[in-house]
Here is the input.
Amino acid sequence: MTSMALVVAGLVGLPVAPGWAGAGYWCAAALLWPGLARRNRIQTLLLLLVGACCLALSRRLGAEVDIERIVAGNSSLLSMLVAVSFLGLVSRPGEEGEARFPRGRQAVASTLGAVHLFGSVINLSSVFIIGDRLSRNGSVSREQAIVLIRGFTAAAFWSPFFAAMAVALSVAPQAKLAFLWLVSMPLALLAMGLTWWQLDRQKPGEEATPVNEFVGYPLHATGLMLPVLLAAAVLLSHQLWPGLSILSVITLLSPPFSLLVLAAGRRSPVAGLGQLVNGRLPQMGNELALFLAAGVLAYGLESLLSSWGGTLPFGGFGATEASLTYLVIVLLSLLGIHPIICIALAGSVLSPLEPDHTLLALVFLSSWAVGTSTGPLSGINLAFQGRYGVDSFQIMRWNLSYLGLMSVLVVLAIWALAALLGVD
Here is the structure.
């Protein structure tokens, strides 16, 4: 939290070097290292090794290596994630009361809406809050797993409070959110509509159960208020202060907004901060280590490519190149490579082409939304396996048809946005 405060101080104009915040995050990662998942430790070390090798080679080729940039890394992105964690103090779907759980087609729609909207604000915790309410004997049905995972990951298409948006905007900071939302929000709705349609038309079989037996989670009108209010506040703030990136606006807005809501609801902001420091923040170790290492990799690749002077097989970044980039990232997700690694790599490789940042952001958000729902080693699917005992490779098999159909829609959306932006 201290590192986030240092980044905020820099955003409001105080003379704070970015290296101080970065150093704080590296210290936090070192302290949390013993508690990280083994898979994340291996990925982090591999990213650091490859990044270090790229920096060493670029140094031999005559490039200057900026130590402060290595230390600062993804400190802005991480500060945004810490800031967003404050929102979990004021928005919890479990607080809606013990309403009778709906059944059937309506239950599919209400559960998709609930996990999507709450997930867009409080991220992964929404899946487990709702999943725990629905689970029987510590497990959920095939249909419930599909709805929870797809409804949650679809928020990556548009939510400014999602890790996907933080990563995308760190690589494409000049993306125009209003134009992006014109395409990405319909994609999120199509993702949930496709899920509803697939479950509605499935035939009962060895794994599938009739949709009229689906037990879901209720969505009340009050559940719409916070996500809509926050998204509107971010967009308005960005219009009022265009010099600040969306990433910076979210970092500045989320903590005071959350504490004010707590105070207005006669809940103690101090108790809320204690809950955050002792609860959510220590659980961010895996994200912290991975994002710091990805920052080293991205800088190493960027430095190597610029000093090497190599050329890409294409001379621009239009709809065709954007579509190919999306498909490559999704395929790599199926092989177990985290989207942040793919995005860091793509950002470094594509930067010499000076791509349109709005189009680039759509590619990254879409590949995250579709790839993480299907990839067997994605964070959501591994967490779901650990929580409810549903095999992550089985989840991949359930979502392959969704991946194929959504990829068609994403490619069409990429071409539509490219035409809207006038990108050749």
